[in-house]
Structures are given as C-alpha cells and as structure tokens.
Specification:
The chain crosses the membrane at residues 12-34, 54-74, 95-116, 136-153, 165-189, 195-217, 238-256, 262-282, 321-340, 360-381, 393-411, 417-438. By secondary structure, this protein is mainly α. The protein contains 17 helices and no strands.
C-alpha cells in the first residue's frame, strides 16, 4: 500500500535531504537569531541582567530537553511505523505522545514553582541578579505549555516530512518574540518598561503563537497522521517505544544544562565575568549548531522511514550526505570563530573585560567544531533507528564525562582557560567513540 510518505524512499537522497533540511535550518537560524537578539536587548540592562538570564538557561534547557526528547521519540516511532506501512500504529503513537505531553506540562509547572529559587541561589549571592533570574524563570516555566505542546506538534509534522509547515510555525513564534522583546523590555509605544520580565513574557507569547499556528494548520490540512482520543490509551508497548528513544534523547539534550550549571559553579569562583562569557558562548553555540541540527532533524524521519522499509543501502547514502553538509557548516563556524572572535563578542556587550577573555574562550572551543560532526550525525542516526541509549552515551561523553572532571582539574592549573580547553578534547574523544559504536551496529 502506498502512502504520502513514500517520497522518502524514492526521491534522490541529496535533493531530498536538502529539501527537508532547508526549511528547518532557516527557521531554526531565525530562532537562534532571536536568542541572540534577546541577549543583546537584555545586556543593555546591564551585566547583572545578562548574568540572571544566563543562570536560568539550565532550567529552560531542562524543559526544552523534556519536550524535544519525547518529541524525538514520537517522531522515531511514527517514521518507522510509516516505513513498515502501519499507519494505524503511527496514529496511535502520535495520539499517545500528545497525551503524555499534557501530563508533562503539569509536572513542569510544579517543578518550576518548587525548584527555581533554591537552584538559582546556588549560583549567585547578588540579590538583584537572583530576583531577576527568579522572575524570568517563574514565567517561562509556569507558562511552558505553549512550548511543550507546540514542540510535540513540530515532531509529529516532521515525522511525515512536513518541514515547510514546521518552518511557518517557528517563524511566526520567532518573529513575535523579536517584535515584542524591545517593546516589553524597554517600554515602547506607551507600555511600561518591564526589563527582564518583559523578555520572559515575549518568550512565552511567541511559543503560544507557534502553537496556535499548528492548531490552525492541523484543523485544515490532512498531514497523513491523525491525533484523536480514539487512538489514545496507556498502551505499554507504544509508551515504551516512545520513551526508549525519548528519555535518552531528553537526557542528551539536558546534558548541556547540567554541564553549564556545573561549569557556572566553577567559573563563578573566578569571576561572574566568566559566567557571562559561558552564557554568551552557549547562545553562539546554539546559533552554530542550529544548521547542523536542521540537517539531523531531516535525517531522522528519512533514516527511520528507510530503516523501517529495509532500504539499508539508501540509509548509508543518507548518512554520507548528512556528514558532508554538517562538515561544511562546522568549517564555516570554525573559521569565523578563529578570525573574528572579538567582533562576535562585541555584538553582545561592549565591556572590554568580557570581550578579551571571551575571544580567547571562543578560539579555543572552536577547535572541536569540525570533529563534532561525527558525534552529532551519529547521535541523530541512532535516535532514528530507535537506539536511544547509544545517542545518550555519545552525548554524555561530549558534555559530561570528559568536560566536568577534566575541567575541575585543568581549572586548578590554568584557571578559566583550563575549562575552555576541555571542550575540543571532549569532541575528539566523543567522535572516536561514536565511530566505534557505528561500526558495531548491524544496519
């Protein structure tokens, strides 16, 4: 039986990958641009405000990790079931996944109310910074339903190759954010200046706008997947399939939060300046890795569909094309970081105390960008094939297992520079491990 997604095993690989990746890369670049613009606006309020928002990043990333991770699990199950020509099973996976997302929304609100202040108090003793950080965090966590549900829709749409529709939704949310940020932060058009609170309100408003776009599209267009209460049940097999990929993926995405939280603690022992530098770098890293993530998001449904359909030779070609595209992106990022580090940091802040050491950090960390291609692509591949634990292992090696203990040791010798050196070392070791794991995988 033919279905709407058969193009994923018939269309030439390179054009297919580009056609599905391009909308995601564009929309995610705009999302990353928003994150950078947001930091620029917040930085105009002062270093304390920028530090406050940087401290909230780990908590935000935990929420994002949960929603995206479970979404990746849903995406993986749907794509493989469609490849196996089992559309009813795909509908069940989508409906159960949406139900689980609603449960997660409730848990996140409870988490935000209970954890925010104790967590943030660990990293700063400045009362103004803590107050701003708590205010920002309460808003983005307690109104996170817009983010969680729209990301669930996003992964369902991506699983059937509807990347253009996903792009439209993301663009609406990002543009809303960018427009509202200066208005709410600085109090334009007669509105009161809300400062850091305004940045948080703009963020959640954009997320709900993205969700509304998905609801409108889904109600008017048949995407090939049906989300309905009649398909929902607490079916153990489907839930296990979703979480077997989703939990490792969530942990993998949460690893940067754990990493940044621990590194913030180490860096705060030297100066809050280095905490701000790490916060800026993490936003720059997001901007760089966003195009790579767009390629991987296109890779997942294509690889999962072809794996389910038994098209293994085509699967290998998909992997090679993905590697080529991500290497090109990372090479450009490396050159920019090595040649223009001062100019890049100057976009965020004009404090020479930040620009100098920030440029040094960026140059050192960028030495691992190109080799990270291997672990980034293979981690996405393992998620597509339902091997979530292997993706998690790659991520833990990249972001926890090497960086944290080595950073603790080297920071005692070289200060903050010792922490920056750990980043490229971890990338090389993770790439080697990922390659070994792929060789052992029979596909």
């Amino acid at each position: 039986m033919q279905n709407k997604q058969d193009f994923m095993k018939t269309k030439p690989v390179f054009p297919l990958l580009l056609s599905m990746a391009a909308p995601m890369v564009l929309s995610m670049l705009i999302q990353s641009l928003y994150n950078i613009v947001d930091s620029i606006f917040v930085a105009r309020l002062g270093t304390e405000a920028l530090t406050a928002v940087s401290l909230v990043y780990p908590l935000q990333n935990i929420v994002l990790s949960l929603s995206v991770g479970v979404g990746v699990g849903i995406n993986s199950v749907i794509a493989r079931k469609l490849g196996e020509q089992k559309p009813e099973e795909a509908n069940k996976a989508a409906s159960i996944g949406m139900g689980l997302t609603f449960i997660h929304c409730i848990l996140i609100i409870i988490f935000g109310l209970l954890v925010t202040k104790p967590f943030l108090s660990i990293f700063t003793s400045d009362p103004q910074t803590l107050a701003w950080a708590c205010r920002y965090s309460y808003i983005v966590l307690c109104f996170s339903a817009g983010s969680l549900i729209h990301i669930c829709f996003e992964k369902i749409f991506q699983s059937v190759g509807a990347m253009l529709l996903t792009m439209i939704s993301l663009l609406v949310g990002c543009i809303t954010n960018i427009i509202l940020d200066p208005i709410l932060i600085f109090g334009l058009f007669g509105l009161p200046a809300m400062g850091v609170t305004g940045a948080a309100v703009a963020t959640v408003t954009g997320q709900f706008c993205s969700l509304f776009v998905y609801l409108i599209i889904y109600s008017r267009k048949d995407i090939g997947i049906k989300i309905s209460p009649k398909y929902f049940s607490f079916d153990k097999s489907t839930i296990l399939q979703i979480y077997s990929v989703g939990i490792p993926s969530s942990l993998m995405l949460a690893a940067p939060s754990l990493m940044s939280g621990i590194l913030n603690f180490m860096l705060a022992g030297f100066s809050d300046i280095y905490v701000a530098i790490l916060g800026i770098y993490l936003k720059l890293q997001t901007f760089l890795y966003t195009p790579a993530s767009g390629i991987v998001q296109a890779l997942r449904p294509i690889a999962g569909y072809n794996y389910g359909a038994g098209e293994k030779e085509r699967l290998h070609k998909i992997i090679r094309c993905s590697m080529l595209l991500v290497v090109a992106i990372m090479t450009a990022g490396t050159l920019a970081a090595l040649v223009f580090p001062q100019q890049i940091f100057a976009v965020f802040i004009d404090d020479p105390a930040l620009i100098g050491p920030g440029s040094t950090a960026l140059r050192i960390i960028s030495l691992g960008f190109i080799v990270s291609t291997v672990s980034v692509v293979y981690a996405g591949l393992f998620e597509a094939l339902g091997c979530g634990k292997k993706s998690l292992l790659i991520s833990l090696i990249r972001q926890i297992v090497i960086i944290i203990p080595l950073g603790f040791i080297l920071s005692r010798i070289w200060g903050p520079v010792g922490i920056w050196v750990c980043f490229p070392i971890a990338e090389f070791l993770a790439a080697g491990m990922a390659r070994i794991m792929v060789k052992k995988q029979n596909f």
